[in-house]
Amino acid sequence: IFECDNAECPRPQRYRATGSNASDQFPCDRSGCVGQFHLLRHISFVDCPGHETFMAAMLNGAAVMDAALMIIAANEFCPQPQTYEHLAAVNIMNLKSILILQNKIDLVGQVKAEVQCEQIKSFIQDTNAKDAPIIPISAQLNCNMDAVCDFIVRKIPIPIRDFTSKPKMIIIRSFDVNKPGTDVDDLKGGIAGGSITQGVFKVNQTIEIRPGLIFKDNTGQLQCSPIKSKIVSLYAEKNTLDFAVPGGLIGIGTKIDPTLTRADRLVGQVLGETGSLSRIYIEITAKYFLLQRVVGVQSDSSNRNAKINKLSENEVLLINIGSLSTGGRVLRVKSDLVKIQLTKPVCADINEKLALSRRIDGHSRLIGWGEIRTGKEIEPQIDI
């Protein structure tokens, strides 16, 4: 996001958004303005699809967010079922910086837009978003997008980052960049993409990915073997970097066999400096909190599923920890603590947050959240 340095250039026209490959300075194109646009802030977006079947993707994305833009279609009733769930996830992750964008404003008249604006205000009044600005926009027509930049700059504070701790990244994508038929000598290692939560990564740094490869031993017990490699490249969109710091989405090129990274196979894992990552758990005990009602389900006297029942032993839930989505069987419930056996092992910290979802009417619905208190560890096997 750029800002014109001419004090007479009015808001919001003084703000402009471009791709990250733009020059750090260029002339303002407003008629009569002699100012220059200067780089003010560099941001990345995690797209969280609104459809209910993508709720796990939304919860995974929430793990790396500093703020949220809630996009609501002006030609639909508000709130939609998925809007409830997204806002509940924002509350769980305790995001304070929220902007609401009333999109497709070009498809409705003024009266209908104003009616929906009142619906939005009523919907958010008891949530973290109660003071969020509501900005009418048309993304297709590029209408009011400068106002969005204005509010991002003025309403969303730059987060305080930790540059001194050992580096750590939550992987939210991984892929193989090699095209079919590539010569063996030209093959490139796998790519891991995500958000750095702490520390600084550098080219040629040795790294470790946990849990790594997951397999069963001769007794049928799950085991894991962390993957070790070296950073060969760092990317922020189209820009190559010598080092990468917290904030934004970063692509890390490695020497890992690309078959291990293709098709998001590393999503849910954690990447960091060798020997510095957290422990790996296959069972967790968490302090949990249930929502009062199922978000995204119509609440009326005929729908018994709208009310959230207590957790019961042996039921299977969907657990989101960091960027990992996995099944979890409830082993024991005692007061506000629940012990869960995970389908996949997770590399996590004590007190890390998790989201709980339950299968209701054929869909996974967010029912609560928790914080990890302790767990049963897996001792890593021979490193790869």
TrEMBL record:
**Organism domain of life:** Eukaryota
Pfam families in the record:
eIF2_C (PF09173), GTP_EFTU (PF00009), GTP_EFTU_D2 (PF03144)
Q: Which GO terms describe its cellular component?
A: cytosol; eukaryotic translation initiation factor 2 complex
Catalyses: GTP + H2O = GDP + phosphate + H(+)
Name a single GO biological process. formation of translation preinitiation complex
Record's keyword terms, sorted: GTP-binding, Hydrolase, Initiation factor, Nucleotide-binding, Protein biosynthesis
Checking PANTHER family in the record gives:
EUKARYOTIC TRANSLATION INITIATION FACTOR 2 SUBUNIT 3 FAMILY MEMBER, EUKARYOTIC TRANSLATION INITIATION FACTOR 2 SUBUNIT 3-RELATED
Q: What is this protein called?
A: protein-synthesizing GTPase
Organism, per UniProt?
A: Rotaria magnacalcarata
